[in-house]
Specification:
The protein is about 70% helix and about 0% strand. The protein is mainly α. The chain is globular.
């Protein structure tokens, strides 16, 4: 899935023909789509770096792509969980992904949450900038990030 298409769909929800402010349902869906743009970039990157770029016809590629667990990704990408050995680009991507997942949870599950068009525009801008920047990460950085989010770290045997 193309992450840019998720951002385009979110943008379209903001611009639906209607007088006045966008409906909250459109803003909430747009917030979710911004998160999914980041998540699907990570899933594509993980699958390409660990299983090769054969794409969705290859069972191993699909297994890696589908292997990402939203909760595990959020835990591993939360502040303080990204090791200092990662580049600032990867650390920034990971922190924003975790932050966006929190926003998505509010949008999807908190009936009292309210979003403004300017909020969603800000999230779109942040996600777009991050996606442009993270594309420059090296294959080794992408592979290390994939391993970091896919596998639980176990304490070393003594």
């Amino acid at each position: 899935m193309n992450p840019g298409h998720w951002l385009e769909a979110a943008e379209q929800l903001l611009e639906m023909p209607r007088r006045g402010a966008p409906r909250q349902v459109n803003l909430r869906c747009a917030v979710s789509m911004v998160y999914y743009a980041l998540f699907h970039w990570l899933a594509n990157s993980a699958a390409d770096t660990l299983a090769g770029s054969a794409g969705s016809k290859d069972r191993s590629w699909i297994r890696v792509y589908r292997g990402l667990d939203h909760g595990q990704v959020r835990r591993q990408c939360s502040q303080g969980r990204i090791p200092g050995g990662f580049s600032p680009t990867i650390r920034h991507f990971a922190a924003e992904l975790a932050e966006m997942q929190g926003r998505r949870h509010r949008a999807d599950y908190d009936p009292g949450a309210r979003f403004s068009k300017s909020d969603v525009r800000e999230y779109l801008g942040i996600a777009s900038d991050i996606l442009n920047t993270v594309q420059t990460a090296t294959p080794a950085e992408k592979r290390a990030l994939a391993i970091h989010v896919l596998f639980k770290e176990r304490p070393a045997a003594s």
